[in-house]
């Protein structure tokens, strides 16, 4: 028998649960633009559609400084504090 | 290291377990068969047992199974002859030379310790033991023995045995999870199945190999070197060493791998984006300073290709850490459309000695005698720039410029993107054939020969890339005639020298998104 050493990260990831689905869309909806070209166009259209379909829902827009880096933690916390749901215009 | 005289329980030739300490004075000796001095001492140890075995525990420990059989046959021991073929007790007692002899009181205090054979010392030991036990001396014809004989290195210090023992010891530097592979399994296949590999075979990271790898750096094994994207996983020196073993590194390469990781795991370099981009970016490592020669890196013929273990495995070790610790796996966070072979490995040293220019690390603020690794995020390369005809310096500079103009797409200019130009010795000779030709002049030449009017970047029937027709319609003729060079700034053009004496073939690496919105090249001093 040969014994080798584990080359990977040995941390145990935290298990996260998906938020319960209620069937309704309520509260503040965030739209996050990751700053890829033309992502804003997609989100503009989505905002129009949501406003028409869910007139009582407030839509707030957010933008990452650059698509090449993870979302800054300040922005992530701000979105978490303000929104019930977030739609991210993920590229590619 | 371990404290002297730790307890042990070993079997003698009859299979009986003998324990130390046993509450009596003890004479404990270590010998090995292939040591002449041990064979010289063996009859003396037997004589000691004959003289005092009823008053003290006289124990002889042999260091190999087959060797013990030979010693027993050769010397006809009646002294308890114990099996330390695993060398665990030898390792725990932490001596260097055999024969090693310890005279230990009933209270556990070591009264005398001898290594090797010096007749006077052994005679003195004879007298001391006799006095301590109120007994007569052993029956030894001391005058027939040589005055002095050197001992041999203890078997537990053989590298393959010592490293294994150290890995298993209580104070082992190893903390990583141990994975047992059944003897019926193929180790190489197992590692492929576990997803540890970049697609090429790996060297199994056994504890012994990792211990040897760790000897390549003065840093403590559990030091955290960096937080590795994309999973933002802390990586210790030990984890880097494990991946360096798998990559095929020698221990002396480890400081370069550590410095390279420190460089790429910075916000400036943005390893997350470099990994995730569909464009297929990868770190390209350039090594400068004395370490290039010391670890045998190749900066001459074939510097950018295969053949050099150091070049190949340093770059690969970096990639394996980012993959295995950071979690950057193709199809996961690595979303490269085509990817590129630099994601296996890309590391080379600059041939500073063949260059009239300041080496890369000195340009970047380090001392010439520092060893430094610089990481660039590159998406293509090495792209050959071929010119066998130019004889004038500015012709040569012009060729290098036109070669760089192909970066991304030849019509696109005013780019905020790094390029790494590797000038070969023959092209360098042409550049400097009429006197000094500075890097600044070469950069200016590259910019000059690639300068085109902005209107050549407007989308057309040949290529829709570039300035859109709608944007162009809003621009005046004067604006469209604005001359623009390939690079938005000379600072994006990085220049090093490498390659063999023969061949008029330079090469360029093409960057990714350069700057705070993408990746900025980072240099780190190599601590070794």
Alpha-carbon Rg of chain B, integer? 33 Å
> Which bin fits the share of residues in helices of chain B?
25-40%
Number of helices of chain A: 2
The chain-level structural class of chain B is alpha+beta
Number of strands of chain B: 23
Quick structural overview:
Chain A is of the alpha/beta class and 92 residues long. Chain A is 27% helix and 23% strand.
Task: Explain what the structure shows.
The complex is a heterodimer of chains A (92) and B (528). Chain A has two helices and four strands, in the order E-E-H-E-H-E. With 92 residues, chain A is α/β, with parallel strands linked by helices. In chain A, strand 2 (28-33), helix 1 (39-53) and strand 3 form a beta-alpha-beta unit. The longest helix of chain A is centred in the middle third of the chain and has 15 residues, at 39-53. The model of chain A has no long low-confidence stretch (mean pLDDT 90). With 528 residues, chain B is an alpha+beta fold. In chain B, 31% of the residues lie in helices and 20% in strands. Chain B is built from 18 helices and 23 strands. In chain B, strand 3, helix 1 (36-52) and strand 4 form a beta-alpha-beta unit. In chain B, 47% of the residues are buried. Chains A and B meet through strand 1 of A and strand 12, helix 8 and helix 10 of B. Strand 1 of chain A pairs antiparallel with strand 12 (178-181) of chain B.
């Amino acid at each position: 028998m040969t014994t080798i050493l584990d080359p990977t990260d040995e941390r145990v990831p935290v298990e996260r649960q998906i938020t319960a689905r209620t069937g309704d869309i309520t509260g503040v909806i965030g739209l996050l633009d990751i700053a890829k070209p033309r992502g804003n166009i997609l989100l503009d259209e989505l905002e129009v559609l949501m406003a028409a379909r869910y007139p009582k829902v407030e839509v707030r827009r957010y933008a990452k400084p650059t698509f090449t880096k993870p979302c800054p933690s300040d922005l992530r916390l701000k979105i978490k504090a303000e929104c019930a749901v977030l739609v991210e215009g993920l590229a590619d | 290291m371990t404290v002297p005289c730790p307890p042990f329980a070993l079997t003698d030739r009859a299979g009986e377990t003998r324990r130390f300490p046993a509450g009596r004075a003890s004479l404990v000796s270590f010998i090995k068969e292939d040591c002449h001095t041990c064979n010289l001492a063996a009859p003396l140890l037997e004589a000691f047992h004959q003289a005092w075995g009823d008053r003290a525990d006289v124990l002889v420990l042999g260091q190999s199974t087959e060797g013990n059989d030979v010693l027993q046959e050769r010397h006809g021991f009646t002294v308890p002859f114990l099996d330390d073929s695993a060398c665990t007790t030898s390792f725990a007692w932490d001596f260097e030379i055999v024969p090693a002899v310890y005279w230990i009181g009933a209270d556990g205090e070591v009264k005398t310790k001898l290594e090797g054979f010096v007749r006077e010392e052994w005679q003195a030991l004879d007298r001391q033991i006799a006095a301590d036990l109120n007994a007569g001396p052993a029956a030894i014809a001391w005058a027939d023995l040589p005055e002095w004989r050197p001992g041999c290195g203890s078997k537990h210090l053989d590298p393959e045995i010592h490293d294994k023992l150290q890995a298993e010891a209580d104070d082992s530097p190893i903390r990583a999870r141990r994975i047992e592979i059944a003897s019926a399994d193929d180790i190489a296949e197992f590692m492929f199945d576990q997803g540890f590999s970049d697609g090429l075979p790996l060297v199994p990271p056994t504890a012994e190999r990792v211990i040897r790898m760790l000897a390549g750096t003065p840093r403590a094994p559990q030091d955290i070197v960096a937080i590795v994207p994309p999973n933002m996983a802390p990586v210790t020196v030990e984890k880097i060493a494990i991946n360096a073993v798998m990559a095929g590194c020698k221990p002396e390469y480890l400081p370069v791998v550590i410095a390279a990781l420190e460089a790429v795991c910075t916000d400036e370099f943005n390893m997350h984006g470099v990994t995730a981009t569909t464009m297929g970016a990868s770190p390209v490592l350039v090594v400068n300073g004395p370490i290039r020669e010391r670890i045998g890196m190749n900066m001459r013929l074939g510097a950018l290709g295969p053949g050099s273990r150091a070049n190949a495995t340093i770059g690969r070790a970096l990639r394996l850490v980012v993959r295995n610790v950071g979690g950057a796996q193709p199809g996961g966070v690595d979303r490269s459309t085509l990817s590129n072979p630099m994601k296996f490995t890309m590391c080379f040293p600059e041939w500073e000695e063949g260059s009239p220019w300041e080496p890369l690390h000195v340009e970047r603020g380090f001392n010439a005698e520092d060893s430094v690794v610089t990481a660039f995020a590159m998406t293509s390369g090495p792209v050959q720039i071929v010119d066998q005809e130019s004889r004038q310096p500015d012709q040569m500079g012009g060729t290098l410029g036109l070669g760089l103009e192909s970066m991304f797409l030849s019509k696109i200019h005013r780019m905020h993107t790094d390029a790494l130009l590797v000038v070969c010795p023959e092209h360098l000779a042409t550049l400097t054939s009429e006197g000094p030709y500075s890097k600044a002049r070469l950069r200016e030449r590259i910019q000059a020969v690639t300068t085109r009017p902005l209107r050549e970047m407007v989308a057309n029937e040949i290529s829709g890339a570039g300035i859109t027709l709608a944007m162009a319609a809003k621009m005046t003729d004067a604006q469209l005639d604005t001359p623009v060079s390939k690079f938005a700034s000379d600072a994006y053009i990085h220049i090093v020298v490498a390659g063999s004496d023969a061949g008029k073939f330079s090469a360029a690496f093409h960057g990714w998104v350069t700057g705070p919105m993408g990746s900025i090249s980072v240099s780190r001093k190599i601590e070794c």
